[in-house]
Amino acid sequence: MDYLKENDIFGSSDINLHATLRYYGYSTEAINKSDPSKAIFFVKRDAGLDGFIQQYFAHELRVEPLAFAAIIKELKTRLYHA
């Protein structure tokens, strides 16, 4: 059995960042909802993730608005109805 190490995952409470990661093909591995005031979304880390996140914060990425909105809606459903 393979176990994930802390460096194998990336977590963020930024729902827009996570939705962008989902839009570009990353999967939601887990959502930590233990704190009722914020959730932390987790994805598996790969070689390109850090650069991708830098592109996000540098405003270098583009998304299709309706697809992005659908991902946000799905994430909120998982947060509030799961």
UniProtKB/TrEMBL annotation:
<feature type="domain" description="DUF5659">
    <location>
        <begin position="8"/>
        <end position="80"/>
    </location>
</feature>
<dbReference type="Pfam" id="PF18903">
    <property type="entry name" value="DUF5659"/>
</dbReference>
<dbReference type="InterPro" id="IPR043718">
    <property type="entry name" value="DUF5659"/>
</dbReference>
<protein>
    <recommendedName>
        <fullName>DUF5659 domain-containing protein</fullName>
    </recommendedName>
</protein>
